[in-house]
Design brief:
With about 270 residues, the chain is α/β, with parallel strands linked by helices. The protein has 3 domains: about 45 residues; about 70 residues, membrane protein fhac (Ubiquitin-like (UB roll)); about 140 residues, Rossmann fold (3-Layer(aba) Sandwich). Helices cover about 40% and strands about 25% of the residues. It has 5 helices and 12 strands. A 9-stranded mixed β-sheet has the order 6-5-4-7-8-9-10-11-12, with helices on one face. The protein has a 3-stranded mixed β-sheet with strand order 1-3-2, with helices on one face. It is elongated, with a radius of gyration of 36 Å.
């Protein structure tokens, strides 16, 4: 009799435990369902709000502020990318628009900003040609040594020439950066050795270049990474040749010597 009572008690405990487990599982499932419903409602609310803002007249694009370019290029950017159309400021994909604008040959980089509720800011870095690179075609190069545009018949060509670089060589980017470095040094110089007086830079190899100035009918040979330290010597040689009237007689000024410059004269 006692054993039967114990068995009944055990069965009752097991049944109670099972009911608690089922009740707990049901409560957890209910909580999960309620959480899913809550997230769905919130998501739908945000989506509805976003759709409303996209079509709201308070978020229409009314003003485009473009800095860094002249009026002609500004108008071109607005027309090509349809920024004068009646569109939502919120609906503009800034990353895609940035990529598209930077495809323009005269635009190096762009920074975009939404200024709510109605203004789009386009801050541009315009390409500034530093030289003309003569390869199979003629190209514009900027101050970073980057080729950015093939020169056509309407483009200005009143710039120094860079020659001696083959278009298909893998070293071309490096050689162009070296030439840009040299031009940066000359840009800081006063005339007649300033960049404005350079007619051509001929790249001889990865180390050497030949410079040609408008006032100096001779080759100035140098290593590009040594030029800055050689400019004082070149200046003195140039002044001496001008004073002695021998400017037209020289053939080459070679700066690749430890003790200074070596001047070679034309043969009689």
């Amino acid at each position: 009799m006692k054993n039967e009572t114990i068995n009944k008690t055990d069965k009752t405990k097991i049944l109670s435990s099972a009911l608690r487990v089922i009740s707990g599982a049901g409560s957890a499932l209910l909580k999960i369902c309620l959480l899913i419903v809550f997230v769905a409602v919130i998501s739908f609310s945000f989506l509805s709000l976003y759709q409303y803002l996209l079509s709201s007249p308070y978020m229409r694009l009314e003003e485009v502020q473009i800095t860094g370019v002249e009026e002609k290029l500004r108008a071109e950017i607005i027309e090509i990318h349809h920024l004068d159309a009646d569109k939502s400021l919120l609906g503009i994909n800034l990353n895609e628009l940035k990529r598209e604008i930077e495809k323009h040959p005269w635009i190096r980089s762009v920074r975009l900003e939404r200024r709510f509720p109605n203004t789009l800011i386009i801050d541009t870095e315009r390409q500034e040609p530093l030289a003309l690179v003569v390869m199979e075609q003629m190209y514009y190069m900027n101050r970073y040594g980057e080729i950015f545009k093939e020169v056509d018949g309407q483009d200005s060509v009143d710039l120094p020439l860079i020659t001696g670089i083959a278009e298909n060589t893998v070293k071309a980017p490096e050689l162009l950066k070296n030439a840009a470095h040299v031009m940066g040094i000359l840009k800081a110089e006063a005339e007649p050795l300033s960049l404005s007086q350079v007619s051509e830079i001929h790249v001889r190899n990865s180390d050497e270049m030949s410079l040609y100035f408008n006032h100096l009918k001779a080759e100035v040979r140098c290593k590009w990474h040594h030029l800055e330290g050689k400019m004082d010597g070149l200046r003195k040689v140039s002044q001496h040749l001008a004073k002695t009237g021998k400017m037209e007689q020289i053939n080459r000024i070679d700066l690749n010597y430890m003790d200074g410059a070596v001047v070679s004269y034309k043969k009689s």
